[in-house]
Design brief:
- With about 130 residues, the protein is α+β, with helices and mostly antiparallel strands.
- β1 and β2 form a beta hairpin.
């Protein structure tokens, strides 16, 4: 599939980063400990969560999230921690658990479709062993 996405644009092809189940982290515990549902951005503008098209998380500013409603506009910023709120300070989680401990199963119908794509040579032969096993 990554080959199809890469080849979708001849000039300046897309850079595809393939992930495995080990690359997926479980943020649920961190979210429940340290994040709050924001209704306004840092400029005081109401956030319409259903219309957000792009979220960007920056390593340099882990307590904030940049977001866009469309791809042409500049990023807006929202704070994700309750800084300024009363109460005990929130303890930061250092070690994130992995979301999955093994490969995720797929349905029989999906496997059948993938094998059919192998059979019709839409999927390159170098990937056939992966899909058959």
């Amino acid at each position: 599939m990554s080959t199809v996405i890469r080849m979708a644009r001849r000039k300046d092809p897309y850079n595809v980063v393939q992930l495995t189940h080990e690359d997926i982290w479980d943020f649920k515990e961190v979210q429940s400990q340290s994040m709050k549902y924001n209704k306004i951005d840092i400029n005081g503008t109401k956030i319409n969560w259903l219309n957000i098209k792009w979220l960007r998380f920056m390593r340099e500013d882990p307590d904030s999230v940049l977001f866009k409603y469309n791809f042409e506009e500049d990023f807006r910023k929202m704070k994700m921690t309750g800084s300024g709120e009363r109460g005990r300070p929130i303890e930061k989680t250092k070690d994130l658990p992995r979301k999955y401990t093994g490969k995720q199963p797929i349905s029989q119908a999906k496997k059948k479709d993938l094998l059919n794509l192998c059979k019709t040579k839409i999927i390159s032969s170098k990937y056939h062993d992966f899909y058959k096993n």
